Structure formats: C-alpha cells, structure tokens
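User: Fold this; tokens only.

Assistant: Input:
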Amino acid sequence: MYQNCSSRRTPVRSVALGFRRILHIEDSETDAYIVKRAFRDHKDVSITWATTGAQGVQKALEEDHDLILLDYALPDMTGLEVLLQLTDKRPDTPVILVSGFGSEYVAARGLQVGAIGYVNKDAPHFREELAQTLQRLFEQGEVRRKAKEVEDRIRQRPSLRRHMEDVLGTLRQSLPEARGTFLTSSDGLPLAMSRSDGSKDVDPLSAMVTGGVLRNLDMVGGSLQLDEQESGLVKYKQGTLVYRKLPQVGSLVVVFDREADPRDDLREVDVAAREIQTLVRDDGL
C-alpha cells in the first residue's frame, strides 16, 4: 500500500544558488518538467531545454550558460558522447550528468571524462532536493576548477616546486618511519615529492595511484557530504596513509608502514601544510 511520508520529512531549506542559466539536455518532456518544477522558488533561474545531444551541443556553443544538466539516455547519442564534445568545445562550462539506478559505471566514467558531478534521477525526493544538490556540486566544481588553475601554475614554476620539495623533505626527516611524503593535485596527480635515496621510498607511480585513491574518496564524499574533512587517516594492509587537504592545491600525503599516530603525525603534517600554503600565497597563486 502506498504511504504518504511527506509529513514526516524535514522541508528542504532554500539555498542561494551560484548559477542562473541552466542548459538542460533531456529528451523526456516529463523529466524536463520535473527539473523545471524543482526551481519554481528560484525566479532568477532560467532553463533552456534541448531534446537531443546535437541540439544541446549547438545551444551550448551559441549561448552562454552557468551550468549544463546532461541526461545520459538521449535519442541520437549517449550523454558521454555529448560530454566529450562539451568538454572539448566549452570546457569552462560545468556539466552535471544525470543517470538512474544501475548507471554507477556511467556516472563514474562521466566524472573521469570531465563532469563535475552526477545526480540520480531515480533517487527518492529527487525534485525536492535537486536545487540544493546542484548547488553543492557546483561549489565543488568551482573549487576543483580553481585548484586546477593553481596546479597548472605550479607546474610552470620549477623554483616553487623545489621549495615545496624542500618542505616535504623536512617533513620526511621529522617522520623517519614514513615511506614517503608528497603533494597531489585535485586530480590525484603528484605535484611534488620528497627527495631521498631510500630504496623503499614511494615512487611517482605509487604516488599517482595513491592520489587517485584520494580523488575517488572525494567523489564518494561529494555524495555523502564527507568532503568537508580537512585531514584523515586511511588504513591499508601494511600501514597507514595520512592526508591533509590544501585549499585550491590538492592533498599533502604521508605513507607509513605502521599505524599512524593521529596526534603527533597529523601535527607534523599540519606544520608542513601551512608552510606549503604560505609558499603558494607568497607566489601570488
């Protein structure tokens, strides 16, 4: 029997939105109407509707939008094919992929290709929570975009990277049992690593894999609202990974072959994190 549970739900708080112009690429008139209804309380938000992938790409090129909401199942091409065109032709416009239950692979692939997030249109209370969900994803996307700009500028400044490596080297000396210390970008790619002659050190490939793990944790965190955690411990079979997020940069990571001390080890990591943030700020990034 159907039960009306709306009386037991806490009303979704209206949020201020950072976007005003939405391009919605969706072939279903019903789903398009649901999205339009989700923004009925936001009078300053305008939604342009495109019913095919080709039409959506054309509108994205001809008009300026703050956000693109892209359905996966379209009549002329898949949402991933559209996403590839959008990231190539309109890379500055954030795209959020829409999928249903059973499309976890599609969502994960979309994030890899360039979407800033995804929403599940089969989820309970999709319409009621859509505006708030899109705003959270939009804010996260802006943070990652700024971090990517900082990352590119760091890679263009060898002297800045050397100073970062010096900080990481000092951190390594203060934590002699660590296998390595390194800085990863928001995309999980290593930006700087401590220099050492130790044969057991974490190599660049391992650092990239570790950074990818943290990035995937961020993706999950975006849905579970765990992304606000600034530091933490990730235990694995042979030891512990300690990380400290640096705003608009990435993550400072230390790998141990033992269980990390939440107090002493994190304190040393925090000191190094402040020094790196000072380097970035003083360099005008």
